[in-house]
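I have a small job for you when you get a moment. Would you make up a two-line entry for one protein for me to read? No commentary is needed, just the two lines. Write everything out right here, beneath this request.
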Amino acid sequence: MNKKKKRTVMARVIGLGLLVLLPMSGECQRVLTLDSCRAMALRNNKQMGVAKMKQEVNANLRKSARTAYLPKVNAVGGYLWMSREMSILNDDQKEALSNMGTNTTVKLQDALAPLASALPAATQQKMAGDLAAFGGALNQVGAGIVDGFRTDTRNMMGGAVTVTQPVFMGGALVAANKMADINEEMAANSLEMKKQNTLYNIDQVYWQVVSLRHKQTLAESYVELVKKLKTDVQKMIDQGVSTKGDGLSVGVRVNEAEMALTQVQDGLALSKMLLCQLIGLDEDEAITLADEENESLPSNPNTLSTPSNLNYDNRPELKVLQNTVDLSKQTTNALKAGNLPTVLLTGGYMVSNPNTFNGFEKKFGGVWNVGVVVRVPVWNWGDVKYKVRASKGATAMANLELDDAREMISLQVRQSNFKVKEAQKKLTMAQSNVANADENLRMANLAFKEGTASFTTVMEAQTAWNAAQSQLIDAEIGVKLSEVELQKALGTLQ
């Protein structure tokens, strides 16, 4: 057995030497540690990328919510063509004003006719000429008045610059900004949750690969053992000490060992392909894990915990649920603002063409304005009240979910802590079993050489040795996985 161990150690040394020389050859294997696998997975995981984008989106939404406190400046302009012109005077009024002098002259002539008949002809002619001139002047005045009342609104242009400053919005702006802060924090907690899930999955696959690699080495050693036994039994058959049936029995055991080795090799290849896929490498890329050649995998005592100091407040799942509760409370505050008055300050400058600031002028004219807008809700048939009640119900449900999750996580942490201790006990027992199996196999081989034991005794010892070694590998990997599970349960997986 000692010689067998030496051969195994020599094989591993040669394997490490080949790994060193591989870069000099045409095909190079990449050696990966657990930390490098984690880092590559975090860089290449698409869900992590989505979570980071969500965090960036919520950060921009928070910045957008802050702008609601600041005044808003808007500018608007427009042009309007109308097929008809708006008129302040009707057609009769326009006609009367345009003929104001003629109508007045006619009335004056009628009124002065009895007096004018007594005057000399020359005087009558002069009076008639003066009245005609007076009438023409009045007609011009009337036409000017009609023209002055023209609006010329067939082509209209206008514009305005307005400034709006919220003064009091019933608490809606404060609630909206707090909701934006909570959403950003929730995105960060969701990112941390995806990060820990990614690390947990990587650790599971990583240690699975290490476990299969160790089992491959074990299977190779076991194949060598049973093949050596087959050689010894064949010699005994040749000497007539054993029967061909004994050789067939050992041959079956050799076939079983080789089949187990093939299964382990296939499982190892598939696990490495899965690991490559998770860390963003090509599935067919040749990789070697740093822990594959370690003789043992000691646990990290710093990760162990006791029931007295278990803490799970770092779990991102609980933080996300707490964010949900806080978000629901702020939603209630925002809804309450529907029953409160709002106050806005407004101001700006308006310009139009034509303008009415100096009659109807066909040019741009503007005016400054400042005002206050107050909106007071009077009656909404209880709409806001019902919405507030519904929001409070949603908050109560979120609190219940948070309490339930806290209880479940508390149980999960305690179970994980128990699994760590159980894994440590299994490791201790497995190490003891390996020592016993080694001694049992040594004694069986010695007895077989001395002729005091049959080959079946050696096969049983080899089977026990193989099972003990496999249990030891499972126990060592179980310790690592239980520690990772405890770290994830505590929210400290980094």
Observations:
- Confidence is low (pLDDT under 50) at residues 1-27, 302-307.
